[in-house]
Every structure is written in structure tokens, then in C-alpha cells.
Design brief:
- The structure is a single chain.
- The chain has about 180 residues and is an alpha+beta fold.
- It is about 50% helix and about 25% strand.
- It has five helices and five strands.
- The protein has a three-stranded antiparallel beta sheet, sandwiched between helices.
- A hairpin with a 2-residue loop joins strand 1 and strand 2.
- Helix 3 packs antiparallel against helix 4 and helix 4 packs across helix 5.
- The longest helix is centred in the first third of the chain and has 30 residues.
- The chain is elongated, with a radius of gyration of 24 Å.
């Protein structure tokens, strides 16, 4: 740090929040003989700020995402419908579902069905960018892909890209 003549102090290392490791290194200028007494206060304060921010991020993420697929959930869909999508000149909506999910669950078990749901989600993640194109799991095997301000040509490109991603996933999974 240009012009800094203090010490760098590692306040914490090897700490975790929800399984995420973090470390905190802070530049502390030497100002006098009481500096050493202030370090524990700095440590506690910075650690609290970081942990609160990480926990807040986790709560926000979990409130907006489906836990199985990682796609946006119905709550995020509703928020975008009442916000961003209201100001669009047009939107393109793709409704999708997983064929024969109940049959797979009944014959092969729910873990196999969950695998199909995750594969479907992966195909949507290949085209969703979170800026103009959003992917949602609305529940069960119901998925939606929404593209904001997408004209017909853009909608066709999105569909083509999604079909290619789905074909690649199916090929890797042997159909």
C-alpha cells in the first residue's frame, strides 16, 4: 500500500461461515503505545462485520433459489414479475417440464428423479445469464425460462442454445 508505514495484521484465518473459509488481513497504522490493546477490539469488530455479511448473503441466496437445482425459485419469479419484467417492452417465456418424472420416481426411486431435475436445471443454466435471461424451478418438474426484452430472433437463439445444451447433457448421461 503506497505511503503506508504501519503493520499488516492477520486478524483471523481458518474461520468458516456455512462451510466457507475466510481470512482477514488489515493494515493497521502504528499510532502509539495503546495499539496492542486495540487489536482485540478490531478483531472482534471486523470478524462480526464479515460474518454478518456472509450470513446475510446466504439467507438472501436461499430465499431466492431452489435448494435442489440452484435455479431461481417461485419467490424470485414473483419478485421479478412485479419488478424488472413490468418495465420490459416484451418478454419471452418458455414453460418446460420433465417428461415421465413420476414414472422414474416410482420405478427407479426419487434420487433418480432428482438427478433428472438437476439435469434439466443444468440445461437451463447453460442459457440463463441472470441479466436478461432467467431460469426458474417453480415446483415439482415445472421449469420456466424468461428472457427480458427478447425479440423473436433472440428467442429462437435462446431456444437453439437450450436444445443444444439439453442434447449434450442427454448424450453424456447416455440418453
Amino acid at each position: 500500500i503506497s505511503g503506508f508505514h504501519g503493520d499488516f495484521m492477520c486478524f483471523t484465518k481458518g474461520c468458516t461461515i456455512s462451510g466457507d473459509f475466510y481470512g482477514l488481513y488489515v493494515a493497521l497504522p502504528k499510532t502509539g503505545k495503546d495499539d496492542d490493546r486495540m487489536y482485540p477490539m478490531y478483531f472482534s469488530m471486523f470478524k462480526l462485520f464479515i460474518e454478518n455479511a456472509l450470513l446475510r448473503d446466504k439467507v438472501v441466496y436461499e430465499s431466492e433459489h431452489d435448494h435442489l437445482t440452484g435455479l431461481y425459485n417461485k419467490a424470485k419469479y414473483s419478485a421479478l414479475m412485479n419488478g424488472k419484467f413490468r418495465t420490459c417492452d416484451c418478454i419471452t417465456v418458455f414453460n418446460l417440464d420433465v417428461n415421465y418424472l413420476k414414472r422414474v420416481n416410482d420405478t427407479m426411486g426419487h434420487e433418480a428423479g432428482n438427478t433428472l431435475l438437476r439435469m434439466a436445471a443444468d440445461s437451463l443454466k447453460a442459457v440463463a445469464d441472470g441479466e436478461d435471461t432467467y431460469a426458474f424451478r417453480l415446483g415439482g418438474d415445472e421449469f420456466m425460462l424468461i428472457a427480458a426484452d427478447a425479440d423473436e430472433a433472440k428467442a429462437e437463439r435462446i431456444e437453439k442454445k437450450w436444445r443444444e445444451a439439453l442434447a449434450e447433457i442427454n448424450e453424456k448421461a447416455d440418453g
